[in-house]
Amino acid sequence: MDKGGDMASVSDFDPLAGSIPATKVEITVSLCVLYTQGIETKQWREFGRTEVIDNTLNPDFVRKFILDYFFEEKQNLRFDLYDVDSKSPDLSKHDFLGQAFCTLGEIVGSSGSRLEKPLTGIPGKKCGTLILSAEELGNCRDVTTMQFCANKLDKKDFFGKSDPFMVFYRSNEDGTFTICHKTEVVKNTLNPMWQAFSIPVRALCNGDYDRTIKVEVYDWDRDGSHDFIGEFTTSYRELARGQSQFNVYEVVNPKKKMKKKKYVNSGTVTDLTNTRTLPCFARALLPAGPCDPSLSPPGNPSQSTSLHYMNPYQLNAYAMALKAVGEIIQDYDSDKMFPALGFGAKIPPDGHVSHEFPLNGNPDNPSCSGIEGILEAYHKSLKTVQLYGPTNFAPVVNHVARYATAEQDGSQYFVLLIITDGVISDMAQTKEAIVSAAKLPMSIIIVGVGQAEFDAMVELDGDDIRISSRGKIAERDIVQFVPFRDYIDRTGNHVLSMARLAKDVLAEIPDQFISYMKGRGIKPNPAPPPYTPTGHTLQTQI
Fold first, then answer.
1. Which of 97, 26, 128 is nearest to 535 (CA)?
2. Which of 266, 175, 207, 148 is nearest to 18 (CA)?
3. CA distance between the termini of the chain
4. Residue 529: is the preceding peptide bond cis (ω within 30°)?
5. Is the pTM of this model over 0.70?
6. In whole angstroms, how far apart are CA 348 and each of 255, 294, 352, 483?
7. I need a surface site. Which of 97, 112, 124, 270 has the fewest CB within 10 A?
8. Which residues, given as ranges, of the chain have pLDDT below 70?
């Protein structure tokens, strides 16, 4: 077989329920093997293989693999390509054509969800290029908006009509039902019109459009002993058709039906849904905006007691936190150039105190190339600046807010990473800056290092009480705080503990992103047209 071409692509993947990548490769291989890497063991495990296509220069792979995609985790993938010479399942008996490494986040975060990776693994030989693309399935994190009305429901109240409300249940694998939504009560009517509501599709049917959905209708009673009016069953596929003659459901009370021969129903419910889904995070994110890691004092970095101490044998807490979070979120930035700022230090040449200085020493362009570039700039800055109080957060928050103010059309979203010892000297100003920033396309991650009390950081987080300033409450919760010490593994397994840290601090970013876009009525970019390679192609579903 001719092994001189190149190209592969991955498509159709669901960021929540799983992914179905489709790989197109312009090399005439007959087998592609996908490996995933464990977070804890770092061992590669075979995830699956395509079927074997024999004796063709244009094989078409149809095998599909389901991959769960998690924004907050670094999911390493490896693709090995082979020319199969026999029916043996032993890969060592076949010709190895090359391999490519990437993360699932790299594919999702690439422009147009299309990523090119060179095939390597054979010394001195150009093995070609693997082209990976990703497209989420329609039911990934879709949120549907629905509305219902009813007609001629049974009268349940002695002195009035009825106060109806509906309860929606998702069916489970074991035949039981789980409540997933309850409408508001409409008082004193037999013909209610309930308000439209939004609900994740997965909450209704766990992504299975044909799974049974049960809806019960009740008459509300003040004492909680609500009267059962009747029920009906449907599916999301049926509901998604919206208003039509087929989406008028008879509300049936089974007990009444058994007792009364002439019983027809207890009213009807009509689906008024004009099916609309809100954006899936993965699709809407592109193109992504910059991540702005900002580093705070304290201590003399030449002394081992300092949190900034540069141990030649291991990273300090600041660097570990930056690397853990940054390595994941950098996959969603197109140019991998990150503005990196320090605050709370005397800087050259005159030694004035700054709360917004570039780590790379270039005030005109504070951007660093990738996470390694930020770490390099951080280490160099520790040798040129004198860490000094007070510690003010507001300047760096406002710094990022200025960028975000100019990009409110949904084309970019900004993430500010602050790594700090928890000391803050401008709490009032910082709260005011965060309340203002909550209206902008940005999120703030705070990682607290050291053994200090982090009460101020917890207050900024706003999980229990939404942050406010001057009587104004933040429009959104955009701050996530975690103490670094909670993730120190006593066994010394920093890889696993830092993966947990990154997962926890990044878990809220997708919802914060969606809340901004939804609040501004910004819809996701249309999906890019499918990639059509030239020349001979093979296709595989990854």
1. 26
2. 207
3. 23
4. no
5. no
6. 84, 19, 7, 31
7. 124
8. 1-30, 39-40, 51-66, 71-72, 111-114, 133-141, 173-174, 244-245, 274-307, 309, 311-313, 389-390, 422, 489-496, 525-542
